[in-house]
């Protein structure tokens, strides 16, 4: 398996966090499909910002804003990784 960082302890921790996040999103996808409710797929719900600002966790507009934020972060990470 490819290392993320050189420190083996930090590498293991980051891989654990990544695996946990993937499992979390898969469970949310299954829940959203079975209950026909996309509120749980809101990016602000997934990262927990809705705990600080509850209004961001619900509503169609906030769902689309969450998608835009998620895409913007993806593009940012993609541009950063292309520099390497």
Note down, in words, how this protein is organized.
It is a single chain. With 84 residues, the protein is mainly alpha-helical. It folds into 2 domains: 1-36, no CATH class; 37-84. It has helices spanning 8-35, 43-47, 60-83. The protein is globular, with a radius of gyration of 15 Å.
Q: Helix and strand layout, with pairings?
A:
Blueprint: H1 8-35, H2 43-47, H3 60-83
Summarize the structure.
The protein is an all-alpha fold. It has helices at residues 8-35, 43-47, 60-83. The protein has two domains: 1-36, no CATH class; 37-84.
Shape: globular
Main beta sheet, described?
none
Please give the alpha-carbon distance between the first and last residues.
20 Å
Q: What is the mean pLDDT?
A: 91
Q: What pattern of helices and strands is seen along the backbone?
A: HHH
Helix segment tally: 3
β-strand amount: under 5%
Determine Rg (CA atoms, Å).
15 Å
Helical proportion?
Answer: 55-70%
DSSP strand tally = 0
Unreliable residue stretches: none
Structural class: mainly alpha
Number of domains: 2
Keywords, please?
84 residues; mainly alpha
